[in-house]
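Need Stage 0 sporulation protein A homolog's 3D structure for a figure. Predict it.
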Amino acid sequence: MNKKILIIDDEEDICSSLEFALEDLYEVKTTVLPQKGLEYLVKENFNLVLLDLRIGNVDGIDLLEEIKNIDKTIQVIIMTAYGTIVSSVDAIKKGAFTYLTKPLDLDLLYKSIEQALELQRNRETVRFEYDGSGEYAYHSILGKSAVMKDVFSYIEKLKDVDTSVVINGESGTGKELVARAIHYAGKRKDKRFVEINCAAIPEGLLEEELFGHVKGTFTGAVTDKIGKFEYANGGTIFLDEIGDMPYPLQAKLLRVLQQKEYTPLGCNEPISLNVRVLAATNQNLKKMVEEGKFRRDLYFRLNVIEIQLPPLRERRSDIPLLLQHFIQLYNKNMSKNVEGLSKKAESLLLEYHYPGNVRELANIMECAVLLSKDKIIEVENLPMELREKKERGRDTLDLTLGMKIGTKNLVGLTLQEAEKELISAALKLNKGHKKATATMLGISERGLRNKIQDYGLN
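Structure prediction for Stage 0 sporulation protein A homolog:
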């Protein structure tokens, strides 16, 4: 199937000429109206947009941001006059693949389009390289440990039902991959998968991102904005870091889940929804409900089924599999020919406790493959920080093996009391440095902060 290209330019002659030049190679659609272009992108799946930097009174950079809000995987090539190259460079920073100056050089245009599409293909390959293949793979997730087999079994049971699911796990454990696996293994796989990180968007903008607005709702609303829920209609919406959603907005989300419809800001007509909702968090939602930080009714509406992802330190039998996977992956990305690890390097990686989980392991291996000069990764190819942490890890053994921490006798203490004393001693040992303390204890920084607050150790 030919790749689909959308051309948005306010000059009809340019639209016609480009369509004529590209129609033998791609499926092409054109429009001189920016809003019409956004509507096309919502209703159809396009691979690339050729976008004029100035379309009447509409700034192409603003339109670029709208396109990326609709689908961040769409490649965008900016078309510009010589006088606006500075603005074009700004567009590159905001997600455009490249810019081309008018009048367009067709050879350069063809080359740029193919490069952009190749980049898109590579990103899809990286994300789904193991999709459906291999004995220990399930839709881009790798694991042969018993606990990961249980996760795969959960996904298989949930893929074709519309039940809401909450995915729990520390940062870096692969919550997004599980959400994608549920979507792409199931009946909605041909529809859109839309993700939004509730913690990454300022509180005042999150409602607009989720539900959109109509033109003229407020100063600066020069066009309609399509919300993530509308864009995901028919498919799946993934609400990452749901625990960070502002409390007032939780009430509106609950109504959407209950009524299967919502009303964009400034609009009077509700929009019907057929969306599966998946959510993820590294926080304890049940505890947040008890503390009044998360709505109880929303918790029960979302948490029909819960999937608990284990930290990497609790599935160590998967580490050799992941090491080989990342070597292959980064060999391909960097045109390297690394074959494996030395015994010392492998031993260090197998013993490390990975507070950043699989994401941290991926970063370590990317660095190691890049720095390796031969076909074998040596200890010196591993990040300096990792080697330093191994030395600090000896303090952890000294700290936890005995029956005393400092002058405090652990005998007779409850588990919580012992944990409090352990955290307190680790903080003192690291002079209050939270990152070093979290690393020593083998927990995330956020987890450490929560425990410091719970135990009153501030």
